TrEMBL record, chain A:
SMART domains: AAA. The keyword Cell inner membrane does not apply. Belongs to the ABC transporter superfamily. One of its GO terms (molecular function) is ATP binding. Keywords: ATP-binding, Nucleotide-binding, Transport. Residues 6-241 form the ABC transporter domain. It holds the Pfam family ABC_tran. PROSITE patterns: ABC_TRANSPORTER_1, ABC_TRANSPORTER_2. This is Peptide/nickel transport system ATP-binding protein. GO terms for biological process: transmembrane transport.
Automatic annotation (TrEMBL), chain B:
This is Oligopeptide/dipeptide ABC transporter ATP-binding protein. The keyword Zinc does not apply. PROSITE patterns: ABC_TRANSPORTER_2. It comes from Actinoplanes lutulentus. SMART domains: AAA. GO terms for biological process: peptide transport.
C-alpha cells in the first residue's frame, strides 16, 4: 500500500481547559478529496489549521507524505490553504500579479522574471480569470473573482494538498456553482488533493469522495461520501442529513437540544 | 377577496442618483408567509426595511407601501412608533446585533411591554411564557442571564420570543437562520413557523436559500437587481418556475446534478439595481437573451400558477 499523502493520527488540541480536537484520525490519499463536516465548534477548522501548520497540536501526529516534520518552506510547498472570506484573505494593496508572483518567488528562487510572468498567466487561466485582471487590486474584483485569486495563490507553489476552509460558504449560489466547477477542474488538471472543511453537505456530495463527520471534537463517522450521506449510521450524522432543506422537507423541532 | 395586509405598490427607492429598488409590487395577506429570495444586492433587505421606514438617510421613495390600507410613508412620528412597536416585529440575521449586550434577557424581552404600560410582574410572566413557547428551557435562569451566556441558536430563539410577545400582525424575518448551524436552523425555522400559524401572523421571510423558503412559505417572490422577477406558490417552485433567473438559481445548487457532473452556472456576477441593464434586469446574464430583452422592460405576466417578468413568456400567454 502506498503512503497516504496526509495522515492524521490521534490528533488532540486543547485551548486552556477546553478540548477542541479530541483523538481525531483520518487520511487523504494522493489526488484524493476528503471532506471534514461538522457544525460550529466541532473542531474542523482547528484540524485544518494544524494540518497547514498554523496551529500546533497538543498531541498526536500529522504525517505529510509519510514525514512528520517539514521546515516551513517545504511544508508550504506541499500544503496550501484557501480561507472562507476573500475580502479578508487578500492584501488590499497588492495587485493580483504581485500576489501570485510573491508566492512563486518565495518557493522557487531560481525562477527568472519571464518564466514567472508565464506561470502567473498560466495560473490565471487555470482559475478562469482574464489575464488583464492581473494588474487589478482586490477592491476592483468581485467576491467570486477574489476567491479565484485566493485559489490561484494557493495553487502557485504546485502543492500536493489544498486545504479549503469553508471556501465557498461566503459566496452567492450562482458564484458558488462557478467556484465548485473550478475546483473540480483544477483537481483534474493538477492532480492536487483536497481537504475540504465545510458544513454544507450538498457541496460535499459534489466535490468529495470521502467524508469525516465531526461533533464536539470527535469523529463520529467516516467513510465514502455516497455511503455515509445516503445511509448514515451515527445518530448525529442522521440529524445533520435530515436538517438540510430540500424539496418536500418539513422542518421539525428536534427532541434533544444541544 | 379581502384586502391584503401588506402591499408594495410600484415601490422605487433610490439613494441620490443610485437606484436601490426599481419596481417592487407584491402583496402579503393576513396569516400568509411570503419568501423573498435572491442573491446579494438584489434588494431583499431594502424591501423589508421599507416596511418600517428604516431606509438609509437621504433615500427617496416613489410608489407606496401600505399596511392594512394605510400608507406607511404618511405616518407621523407617534403613529410610526406605535406601528413599529405593535403591528410588526423584526428578526434579523445576527441575534447578537439585536440584543443589547449589557442588559439581561429579561430586560430585553419586557422592554416593549413595559413601554406599552404593562406592569413589571405581568410583563415578566408573559416574557417567561413566550420563552417557553419557543423551546427555551430553564426560563427563570435565562431571564436573568446576559446575551454572551447564550449560544447563537438560543439567542435567536430569544429574539423570536420577543418578536411574538407583542402579538404582531406581521413578522419581518431577514435571513433569521443564516448565521446558525443547519440542525439549529431546522429548529428555529420550525418554531417560527409553528408560532406564526398559531397566532395567524403574516410572515415576510428573506433568504438566499430557495429550498428553505419553499419549506417555510406559502408563496415565493424571486428578486434580482431591485426587482421582483417571479412570484409563484412555494409548492410549485420546482415544477412551475418560468423565469430564466429562477431556473438558474435552482440549477446552480450542488445536489441538483449527480456528483461529478458540472453544475449549470450563470456567467458573470450578481448585479444590483445600479449596474443592471435598462430593459430586463437579467438580460446581461440570461442564457436565452434576445435583442428585445435589452431595450424593453418586461411586464409581469400571469403564467401557470404564478407570475413572471420575462419577454420570452409573452407569446405563450397570448
Amino acid at each position: 500500500m502506498n503512503t497516504p499523502l496526509l495522515e492524521v493520527r490521534d490528533l488532540r488540541k486543547q485551548f486552556k481547559d477546553f478540548v477542541a480536537v479530541d483523538g481525531v484520525s483520518f487520511t487523504v490519499p494522493a489526488g484524493g478529496s476528503l471532506a471534514v463536516v461538522g457544525e460550529s465548534g466541532s473542531g474542523k477548522t482547528t484540524c485544518a489549521r494544524i494540518v497547514t501548520g498554523l496551529e500546533k497540536a497538543t498531541s498526536g501526529t500529522v504525517l505529510l507524505d509519510g514525514a512528520a516534520t517539514l521546515d516551513r518552506r517545504r511544508r508550504a510547498s506541499f500544503v496550501q490553504m484557501v480561507f472562507q472570506d476573500p475580502y479578508l484573505s487578500l492584501d488590499r494593496r497588492q495587485t493580483v500579479s504581485d500576489c501570485l508572483g510573491e508566492v512563486l518567488a518565495h518557493h522557487d528562487r531560481e525562477m527568472d522574471r519571464r518564466s514567472r510572468a508565464a506561470r502567473i498567466d498560466e495560473l490565471l487561466d487555470l482559475v478562469g480569470l482574464d489575464r488583464k485582471l492581473g494588474e487589478s487590486l482586490p477592491r476592483h474584483l468581485s467576491g467570486g473573482q477574489r476567491q479565484r485569486v485566493a485559489i490561484a495563490r494557493a495553487l502557485a507553489p504546485n502543492p500536493k494538498l489544498l486545504v479549503l476552509d469553508e471556501a465557498v460558504a461566503a459566496l452567492d449560489v450562482s458564484i458558488q456553482a462557478q467556484i465548485l466547477n473550478l475546483l473540480v477542474d483544477a483537481r483534474a488538471a493538477t492532480g492536487v488533493a483536497y481537504l475540504f472543511i465545510t458544513h454544507d453537505l450538498s457541496v460535499v456530495r459534489h466535490v468529495c469522495e470521502d467524508v469525516v463527520v465531526m461533533c464536539r471534537g470527535k469523529v463520529v463517522e467516516s467513510g465514502l461520501v455516497a455511503e455515509v450521506l445516503e445511509a448514515p449510521a451515527a445518530a448525529y450524522t442522521q440529524r445533520l442529513v435530515a436538517s438540510v432543506p430540500r424539496p418536500g422537507w418539513v422542518p421539525s423541532r428536534a427532541v434533544s437540544r444541544g | 377577496m379581502t384586502a391584503p395586509l401588506l402591499e408594495f405598490d410600484g415601490l422605487r427607492v433610490s439613494l441620490g442618483e443610485r437606484p436601490i429598488l426599481r419596481d417592487v409590487t407584491l402583496s402579503v395577506h393576513a396569516g400568509e408567509a411570503v419568501g423573498l429570495v435572491g442573491e446579494s444586492g438584489s434588494g431583499k433587505s431594502m424591501t423589508v426595511k421599507s416596511v418600517v421606514r428604516l431606509l438609509p438617510g437621504g433615500s427617496t421613495v416613489d410608489g407606496s407601501v401600505r399596511f392594512g390600507g394605510i400608507d406607511v410613508g404618511s405616518l407621523g412620528p407617534a403613529d410610526l412608533r406605535r406601528f413599529r412597536s405593535r403591528d410588526v416585529a423584526m428578526v434579523f440575521q445576527d441575534p447578537r446585533a439585536t440584543v443589547n449586550p449589557v442588559r439581561t434577557i429579561g430586560d430585553f424581552l419586557t422592554e416593549v411591554l413595559r413601554d406599552q404600560g404593562v406592569g413589571r410582574a405581568e410583563a415578566t410572566r408573559r416574557a417567561a411564557g413566550s420563552l417557553a413557547e419557543v423551546g427555551v428551557d430553564d426560563v427563570r435562569r435565562r431571564l436573568s442571564q446576559r446575551p454572551y451566556e447564550l449560544s447563537g441558536g438560543l439567542l435567536q430563539r430569544v429574539v423570536i420570543a420577543a418578536a411574538l410577545l407583542t402579538e404582531p400582525k406581521l413578522i419581518l424575518a431577514d435571513e433569521p437562520t443564516t448565521a446558525l448551524d443547519v440542525t439549529t436552523q431546522e429548529e428555529v425555522v420550525a418554531i417560527l413557523n409553528e408560532q406564526r400559524r398559531q397566532r395567524s401572523a403574516a410572515l415576510l421571510f428573506i433568504t438566499h436559500d430557495l429550498e428553505l423558503a419553499a419549506a417555510v412559505c406559502d408563496r415565493i417572490a424571486v428578486m434580482y437587481a431591485g426587482e421582483i422577477v417571479e412570484i409563484l406558490p412555494a409548492d410549485r417552485l420546482h415544477d412551475d418556475a418560468r423565469h430564466p433567473y429562477t431556473k438558474a438559481l435552482l440549477g446552480s445548487r450542488p445536489g441538483t446534478v449527480p456528483p461529478g457532473e458540472r453544475l449549470r452556472t450563470v456567467p458573470g456576477t450578481p448585479q444590483s439595481a445600479l449596474t443592471a441593464p435598462a430593459g430586463c434586469v437579467f438580460a446581461d446574464r440570461c442564457p436565452v437573451v434576445e435583442s428585445a430583452c435589452r431595450d424593453l422592460h418586461p411586464p409581469m405576466l400571469s403564467v401557470g400558477s404564478g407570475f413572471a417578468a420575462c419577454h420570452l413568456l409573452s407569446e405563450e400567454v397570448r
